[in-house]
Amino acid sequence: MKILRTLSVLILISVTAALSCRAEEYKFNRNIPYRVASDSLERARCVLDIYYPADKSRAESPVVIWFHGGGLTGGDKHLPDELKNRGYVVVPVRYRLIPSVSVAECIDDAAAATAWVFDHIADYGGDRDKIFVSGHSAGGYLTSMIGLDKTWLSRYGVDADSIAGLIPFSGQVITHFSHRKSQGMSELQPGVDRFAPLYHVRKDCPPYVIITGDREQELYGRYEENAYMWRMMKLVGHPQTYIYELDGYNHGDMAAPAFHILRNHIKDILSKR
Length: 273
Known about the structure:
Layout: H1 2-25, E1 26-33, H2 40-45, E2 47-53, E3 61-67, E4 89-93, H3 103-120, E5 126-136, H4 138-148, H5 151-154, E6 165-169, H6 177-182, E7 208-213, H7 222-235, E8 241-246, H8 255-271
Parallel strand pairs: 3-4, 3-5, 5-6, 6-7, 7-8
Antiparallel strand pairs: 1-2, 2-4
């Protein structure tokens, strides 16, 4: 019994030490403003978090900017478990929401946050040449908008083509349904205007990795509109557009397995440099 108790204590010490080591490997700074706030809404919503390796003596870690979902009307920033302890600097972003602001201001917040990351991420061990942008649902929509329509980031002195890769999870590529609803359109009435990623297809954008859930379980035909986006990107000559349909996963559940695809593409994109 004494030997067993001794072994149990040693195991407990080892596990505790390992957990302490892992806890010390990364730091997590919260609620950093990414724009100079002019009102209480901007002070509350225009902030981001940074999860980064504690040893940041060299600015070389890949960076993942993560935009949350919620239909542009809800949701909040969060750090996905699937991105922890992977060697990434992860930047979860909060942004303003409809109806308090317009869809243009939602997109502008995404651009402002991304520009802030380009300007400051080296201070947290991130490599500004390895910045990937991703997000789920509404976050996927924002990912595509700022990466395909270069005007949003150019306002902040950043070339959208400096992004290492765009990896939207189940994002809309037609005009977002929350914006269409504000214009008196139904959720099932499609529309394409300047607020649609599909409007901005181009052959010279960063690598573009489209991931959706099962077409029979997705939201509002999300797979089909993304399949059309994939085809149009191919037709305009974009060499690195990919599409994945996760069979058996609905709109909400598809995010967890999609991170496996994200990690593989980050590795593949960086290996080809």
